[in-house]
Amino acid sequence: MAWVYLIAAGLLEIVWAFLMKQSDGFTRLWPSIGTIAFMVGSFGLLSLAMRTLPLGTAYTIWTGVGAVGAFLVGVTILGEQLSIMRVVAAILIVAGLVAMKMSSTH
Fold this sequence. Notes:
Blueprint: H1 2-22, H2 29-49, H3 55-76, H4 84-103
Transmembrane segments: 33-50, 57-78, 84-100
Keywords: Cell membrane, Membrane, Transmembrane, Transmembrane helix, Transport
Subcellular location: Cell membrane
């Protein structure tokens, strides 16, 4: 169950990062409220995952899912630049996440 919590926490991290961008520096009310709500949910699920998973594994997976997800949202929804180097960087992050998962004993 810890892995389910962890992946869900990473997905919520993507949502709060997107909403933070939409909040325009916390000057727009509803995106700001959404940012905080999804942050609380993300941190809550991360803390549940950390009951079982090691800190290094849980935190690395959480930030990696958030980073790659935010990159994909930025490119697909926000129209941010897509370059070979950015794609390679995202692939390397995913490779690191896979290696971290494979090295976990949980």
